[in-house]
Design a protein that fits this description.
The complex is a heterodimer of chains A (about 425) and B (about 475). In chain A, about 75% of the residues lie in helices and about 0% in strands. Chain A is an all-alpha fold and about 425 residues long. With about 475 residues, chain B is an alpha+beta fold. Chain B contains 13 helices and ten strands. The longest helix of chain B has about 35 residues, at about 400-435. Classes of the chains: A mainly alpha (about 425), B alpha+beta (about 475). Chains A and B meet through helix 1, helix 2, helix 3, helix 4 and helix 5 of A and helix 1, helix 6, helix 11 and helix 12 of B.
């Protein structure tokens, strides 16, 4: 009998080991084809790309290798903001499909990621769903489908996709997507919890910075400057130069009243990465300081990039048009002719709540307040707790003569986050005083 | 509002986008000086950013060239040589959307006397945090280049035409070895890093197979079958003490049951070992698995040697009664294995001692060394099983990987059990053939063999540490 007991104990030990093994062992290396929100450094990526190119020169039939190379190009495009990598990604992914099987999930997911980056969300969804059909266990495929579904305003399907992704691979990429969906639905504490999980499963400094930026932004959007600030500090401890963290630090400083400090920070970030978002924030800070010339130069950096996109024949970019609407509302800079109609057309290809907010604001800037109101309602159809979106609708309601509605929205905006914008928050306060 | 598509805002069909700051440095080593031909190419957006400072372009050019020279470092045989700005010109070529771009050219010079073999290194730190093309070349004029880390001519024609298909170049440092005399400049570009050492081919193809994205039930079962085969092959691979186990079974008159016990222990230990190693390797960064393999090898070898020593002791103690048992054993050879099965379950007191008396005193020791043997056999996890597990983990299929490792262990167990069964069946026949003195020496020889193999395994592993 003692021998039997010993056998039972050994078997029990084995089962325990197998279970802990399966629970503890998590992917240390992100699988190829994964569309991750975080990024690695340019050097790491360049080295990986060079190594893959060399390998594929020897083994041109390696379809998985081509798919991985394509995804590495997509990643490189994100890190460097150099869109020429998308064409290279396209070529490598097409090659993977040529030499590999039709049911080539990594290549299909890669094509979906490229299409999403080009804001072709219907195409992105088609590729993402084809990838998920080819391999239901490919988490990246569900991620690509999720990204497209969110932009297409199909939130229930997006929820299914992100649930599949989390089931397959609970990591920073999947938790961050879940957090975003919670945020859109106004479930702020669930969004915070999911982003906390994204932070806990972050495996690279870039992932950590990504999660910290969004945890900080969630806190900031709820008016909690202290928590936002502590996330920024924690994040900068890991990646001192992360532009997203520094942008948020500048926003927190500006909200706390330190406009000169915010301007210094933003100028420093812009000297490294002159993205429109950073330039527009600097413009707001300088305008709030009363430096009209400095603000005009900063806003000009946004306009220059819009001009370059237009010259390159890129269809209407909703983010950049939103900044143009801000200029029209705040500085009486007229919108280019036809902008409102182009934006309404762009919405049809991307009917998300975020797009609805932009369309509403552009239509308002163009003086079409009645139409603007229906888009403003659509922007809040999920119950998103966004001060800026409530402010937009409040201003639009006032323009349509709905004073009670305007009062409710403006009060709600200031209740959600009294610091939501250095330029619009004071306007919200004075307008609210006027309609009360 | 849009974290998912953040950073994907700019989509321009331009070879190098209009956010970039691109730089070229051409280092030319002459007999009396080192000169640098520096070109700065700003795309539309950075040109817009410096717009405010361009009211006096010439002043801006000389100031910028001076700051680039200040941020660069030229070293000649380890000594820093300060660079002086000799020329600076700026132009504003038209870019996209009616905007302009900017092109700045600077000449730098530092005196140097090249009268023996000299190492020249140049590093540029200007605009280090900006996205852009960074290219360097190096050549000799009147001196011979012995070796260089960069090519002699520019692939972009000094930032005039960027190659369409090349990855973003990012070279910020050059080291050149030169010697006096005009000889042919042998340019030695550092080649690509050597490919990683080739894995066992079967394992490699297996890992690739596991990595198939379209893993169906059929393919999964096929992978499992392959794991079993690989495990079985591994059991017969040299250097893992399988031959030792055979010797053990011969020496100790092991039965099928013994073989099964050893095989089971091997499987359990091996599976657990591979899983533990998998956990260690996926959670600990920068861990040298070779070290673990080596130390486990030492432990395994010493354990085997210890078992060998115990066997030798038993063989000596059992030398006399052995003769007696021997006579019986071939009479009852058919029952032998069967009796053993009962013997273990009933423990010491229960019967059959008429032909099992040699089990008597050494019994507890035998069970212990039996388990020790299996433990030693499974202790050193086979690298190929670890590779398969890590591959599956990397693909996000941890459970499948664990299943494959179990399959691998079962394959090993099956092979060992089969070996044991064959030995248990044929040992009596062998013993009938080998009689007398030689027959009596068999247990000693086998025990000695076990010890020697164990020690050699341990020594080999120590050398590998």
């Amino acid at each position: 009998m003692r021998v039997r007991w010993r056998l039972v104990m050994v078997a029990g030990l084995a089962v325990a080991l197998l279970t802990t093994g399966a629970v503890l062992i998590r992917p240390a290396v992100p699988p190829a084809g994964q569309a991750r929100p975080g990024t690695s450094t340019v050097d790491d990526l360049s080295a990986a790309i060079t190594a893959r190119e060399a390998r594929l020169a020897r083994l041109p039939g390696d379809w998985l290798g081509w798919a991985e190379l394509g995804m590495a190009y997509v990643q490189q495009a994100r890190v460097t903001s150099d869109p020429s990598y998308y064409s290279r990604a396209d070529a490598a992914l097409a090659r993977s499909l040529t030499v590999g099987p039709d049911a080539n999930a990594p290549a299909l997911a890669g094509l979906g990621a490229v299409a999403a980056a080009r804001h072709e969300f219907a195409t992105a969804l088609r590729h993402g769903q084809a990838a998920a059909a080819a391999d239901p266990y490919n988490a990246a495929a569900h991620g690509v489908a999720f990204d497209a579904l969110v932009e297409l305003g199909r939130y229930d399907e997006a929820e299914t996709a992100v649930q599949s992704m989390i089931d397959l691979r609970p990591d920073t990429g999947s938790y961050a997507r879940a957090s975003y969906l919670f945020e859109l639905r106004g479930r702020v504490s669930a969004a915070r919890e999911a982003m906390q999980l994204a932070l806990e499963s972050a495996s690279t400094p870039a992932d950590t910075a990504f999660a910290r930026v969004h945890l900080g932004q969630l806190a900031f959007d709820a008016g909690d400057l202290t928590t936002a600030s502590s996330h920024v500090d924690e994040g900068l401890r890991v990646t001192a130069a992360d532009p997203g963290l520094r942008l948020l630090r500048a926003r927190v400083a500006a909200a706390a009243g330190d406009l000169p400090g915010a301007a210094i920070e933003l100028r420093s970030v812009l000297s490294r990465l002159p993205l429109p978002d950073y330039a527009a924030t600097l413009g707001d800070v300088l305008a709030a300081q009363g430096d009209a010339a400095g603000a005009a130069t900063a806003y000009g950096l946004v306009a220059v990039q819009a001009d370059l996109l237009a010259a390159a024949g890129v269809a209407t970019n909703l983010e950049l048009v939103g900044y143009a609407a801000d200029r029209a509302v705040l500085d009486r800079t007229p919108l280019p002719a036809g902008t409102a109609d182009k934006v309404v057309a762009a919405y049809r290809a991307r009917p998300s709540v975020g797009s609805a907010d932009t369309v509403a604001w552009v239509l308002h800037a163009a003086g079409r307040h009645r139409e603007a109101l229906s888009y403003a309602d659509a922007a809040l159809r999920l119950g998103t707790r966004s001060a800026l979106v409530h402010f937009h609708r409040g201003v639009i309601r006032l323009a349509t003569g709905d004073r009670a509605g305007a009062r409710a929205d403006l009060a709600e905006a200031l209740r959600i986050n009294p610091h939501f914008s250095v330029r619009y928050a004071p306007i919200a306060r004075t307008t609210l005083g006027g309609v009360s | 509002m849009m974290p998912v598509v953040l950073g994907l805002v700019l989509l321009v069909a331009h070879p190098l986008n209009n956010l970039t700051i691109n730089q070229y440095s051409g280092v030319l080593i002459g007999t009396d000086a080192v000169t640098v031909d520096y070109v700065l190419d700003l795309a539309e957006v950075p040109t817009y950013q410096v717009r405010g400072d361009l009211s006096d372009p010439r002043a801006w050019a000389s100031a910028t060239c001076a700051s680039v020279a200040g941020a660069a470092r030229l070293r000649i045989d380890g000594t820093t040589a300060p660079l002086a700005v000799t020329t600076s010109t700026v132009s504003l070529p038209p870019g996209d959307a009616g905007l302009s771009t900017l092109r700045l050219e600077c000449g730098f010079r530092a005196p140097a006397t090249i009268d023996r073999e000299t190492t020249v290194s140049y590093r540029s730190a200007a605009f280090a945090d900006r996205i852009g093309w960074r290219e360097m070349t190096a050549a000799g004029a009147g001196v011979a280049v012995v070796s260089s880390s960069v090519p002699t001519s520019s692939v972009s024609g000094r930032l005039a035409a960027y190659p369409q298909d090349a990855a973003l170049l990012d070279v910020t440092e050059v080291t050149v070895q030169v010697r006096p005399g005009a000889g042919a400049s042998t340019v030695d570009r550092s080649g690509p890093a050597a490919a990683p050492a080739g894995l066992d081919r079967l394992t490699a193809s297996f890992t690739e197979f596991v990595g198939r994205p379209d893993l169906t039930l059929g393919l999964g079962l096929l992978a499992l079958a392959l794991a079993l085969v690989l495990g079985a092959l591994h059991a017969f691979a040299p250097g893992h003490g399988k031959s030792v186990m055979a010797a053990y079974l011969v020496a100790e008159r092991g039965s099928l049951r013994h073989a099964l016990a050893v095989a089971g222990t091997v499987t359990l230990t091996h599976t657990a070992g591979v899983l533990v190693l998998g956990i260690v390797l996926t959670t600990a960064i920068r861990f040298a698995p070779e070290q673990i393999y080596a130390w486990l090898g030492v432990a395994s070898g010493l354990l085997v040697a210890g078992v060998g020593a115990a066997m030798l002791r038993r063989a000596r103690r059992g030398a006399h009664p052995h003769d007696h048992g021997h006579d019986h054993s071939h009479d009852h050879s058919h029952d032998h294995g069967h009796d053993h099965v009962h013997g273990h379950d009933h423990g010491h007191g229960s019967g059959h001692h008429h032909h099992h008396h040699h089990d008597g005193p050494g019994r507890g020791g035998r069970l212990r060394s039996l388990l020790a043997m299996g433990f030693a056999g499974g202790l050193a996890p086979s690298p190929s099983a670890v590779v398969v597990l890590l591959g599956a983990i990397a693909l996000g299929r941890t459970w499948f990987g664990v299943l494959l490792v179990i399959g691998y262990g079962l394959g090993m167990a099956a092979a060992l059990a089969a070996l044991g069964a064959v030995l248990a069946r044929w040992r009596p026949v062998l013993e009938r053939r080998v009689r007398g003195r030689t027959g009596r020496l068999v247990p000693f020889a086998a025990a000695a063999l076990v010890m020697v193999v164990g020690l050699s395994l341990a020594v080999r592993s120590v050398l590998a540490v």
